[in-house]
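Private note to self, pasted from the team thread so I don't lose it. Backbone tokens:
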């Protein structure tokens, strides 16, 4: 029932329809067109006013390490990377291979995208129109979850290649071990799912830095243009990139002030500042454009940020590994600053990457208080991916003691794999699929099947409503020949749910009816999550204990008579 064909019918028609939906449903192309125009005009200005001085000659290390076929250590490290990629694929393929894997996949945004194409996230909630941009084309070709997860493997290989291409100033064996460790760290591995744009962001970010290095070495403006292009792709793929790039700009600004290339009277001649900081100017302009667009689209408090807020203690617990690594990196950076600081070496990228990483982490923990809070994501740390990547690279670049680095790497791998397997065991998608299979086997086509759902013990009414709605969406996607009516008490005080959902087109094709009811009625399927220990759940179990028709490790199904 849930084993969809490997390829869709009418791929070409779907490709055109789905991409038309993605390109036309929000005015994001207009906004990004304005940003492109502003940056293009700025590039023309720079082309006419830049001097021939090599402003960024010392931004990157001149060392380049290549794979040595005669060195066993390089081969062992390469095998470690391949093993990490295989581990990633085995990990995600041994989870539930249907939309029932988690709530995000069951949700209306996923199934609507599979019906009509992806709608770009560009509104008062999220301003990431390029996040998951490939999904409209991918859904047009296939909606088989296994095939999509194989695509994730291809994405993982691209991430590994992009990291290897940029960090070639780190000795090969150290660099490859760093990549292998990053791939198995929960921070990255938990994004190995089709709903996350973090992998696209990393690829764009690294490609941009590769072109930035080309510009710093050649001072050909075309490479700066490519850097800004990919930097903007990264920004509009994941919002936190604006903080990362702000850290790079801040590092360069402080350096230029300390070296007195910028003084108070420079403020009277801003074009002179632009002439000595062209990359920073383009980056700042990009960040300013994003902030302006974000403010235009916001309507009061941002729902996404407010829904994800956690306490400081929850932040520290969620990001404990990442924050420990950052503390070590900061200690090494302070030591190196005291002992090796030189005004000849522009730290814009040498140290700016680390500063950007730290700024991002501080903003996530202290300012935005972001930590995934939905049940299937609770405790996961993927928000910290950009910070973890550059902190890990910094540590592998500057820890020279091989024994210390070896112990450090082994501990990271052991901790990461153990944590990954803990999350793997906590995945409950198979139990949701089992309930769906039972429903399918015991219902008839074209007959109304009311289902009253009493889900798990979730904190907020809004979150609980969304979780019930994911049931409705997933069942509508898979059960085209059946008619389910989803009942729940959490919608009882919110009778406008149907009105709220009118923003989605063709609602009957992506949503079964949601009916607010305080209690199940005769003839309903009553589904109770065993983790729900509320008084209502206990009373319903007691009342219908003789009507239990099915149970698995997570759910009980009753048929009230």
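Design output:
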């Amino acid at each position: 029932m849930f084993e969809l064909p490997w390829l869709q019918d009418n791929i070409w028609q779907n490709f055109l329809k789905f991409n038309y939906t993605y390109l036309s449903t929000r005015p994001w192309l207009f906004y990004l067109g304005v940003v492109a125009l502003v940056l293009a005009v700025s590039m023309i200005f720079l082309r006419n006013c830049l001097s021939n001085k090599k402003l960024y000659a010392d931004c990157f290390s001149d060392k380049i390490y290549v794979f040595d076929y005669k060195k066993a250590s390089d081969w062992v490290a390469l095998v470690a990377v391949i093993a990490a990629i295989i581990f990633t694929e085995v990990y995600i393929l041994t989870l539930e291979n249907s939309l029932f894997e988690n709530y995000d996949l069951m949700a209306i945004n996923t199934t609507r995208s599979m019906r009509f194409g992806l709608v770009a996230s560009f509104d008062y909630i999220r301003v990431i129109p390029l996040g998951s941009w490939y999904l409209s084309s991918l859904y047009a070709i296939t909606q088989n979850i296994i095939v999509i997860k194989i695509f994730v493997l291809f994405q993982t290989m691209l991430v590994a290649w992009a990291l290897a291409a940029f960090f070639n100033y780190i000795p090969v064996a150290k660099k490859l071990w760093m990549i292998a460790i990053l791939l198995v760290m929960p921070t990255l591995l938990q994004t190995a799912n089709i709903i996350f744009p973090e992998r696209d962001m990393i690829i764009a970010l690294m490609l941009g830095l590769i072109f930035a290095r080309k510009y710093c070495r050649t001072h050909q403006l075309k490479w700066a243009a490519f850097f800004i292009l990919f930097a903007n792709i990264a920004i509009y793929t994941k919002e936190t990139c604006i903080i990362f790039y702000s850290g790079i700009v801040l590092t360069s600004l402080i350096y230029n002030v300390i070296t007195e290339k910028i003084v108070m009277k420079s403020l009277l001649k801003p074009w002179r500042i632009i002439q000595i900081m062209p990359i920073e100017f383009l980056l700042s302009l990009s960040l300013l454009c994003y902030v302006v667009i974000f403010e235009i689209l916001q309507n009061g408090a941002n729902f996404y940020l407010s829904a994800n807020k956690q306490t400081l203690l929850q932040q520290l617990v969620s990001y404990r590994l990442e924050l420990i690594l950052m503390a070590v990196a900061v200690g090494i950076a302070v030591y190196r600053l005291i002992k090796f600081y030189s005004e000849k070496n522009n730290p814009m990228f040498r140290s700016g990457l680390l500063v950007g990483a730290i700024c991002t982490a501080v903003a996530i923990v202290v300012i935005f208080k972001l930590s995934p809070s939905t049940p299937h994501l609770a405790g996961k740390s993927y928000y910290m991916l950009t910070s973890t990547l550059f902190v890990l690279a910094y540590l592998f670049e500057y820890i020279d003691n091989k024994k210390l680095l070896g112990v450090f790497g082994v501990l990271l791998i052991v901790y990461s794999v153990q944590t990954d397997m803990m999350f793997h065991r906590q995945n409950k998608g198979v139990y949701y699929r089992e309930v769906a299979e039972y429903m399918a086997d015991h219902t008839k086509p074209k007959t109304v099947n009311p289902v009253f759902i009493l889900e798990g013990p979730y904190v907020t009414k809004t979150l609980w409503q969304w979780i019930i709605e994911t049931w409705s969406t997933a069942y509508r996607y898979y059960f085209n020949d059946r008619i389910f009516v989803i009942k729940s008490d959490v919608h009882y005080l919110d009778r406008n749910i149907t009105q709220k959902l009118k923003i989605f087109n063709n609602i009957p094709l992506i949503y079964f009816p949601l009916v607010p009811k305080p209690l199940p009625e005769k003839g309903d399927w009553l589904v109770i999550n065993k983790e729900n220990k509320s008084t209502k759940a206990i009373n319903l179990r007691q009342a219908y204990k003789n009507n239990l028709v099915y149970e698995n490790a997570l759910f009980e199904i009753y048929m009230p008579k």
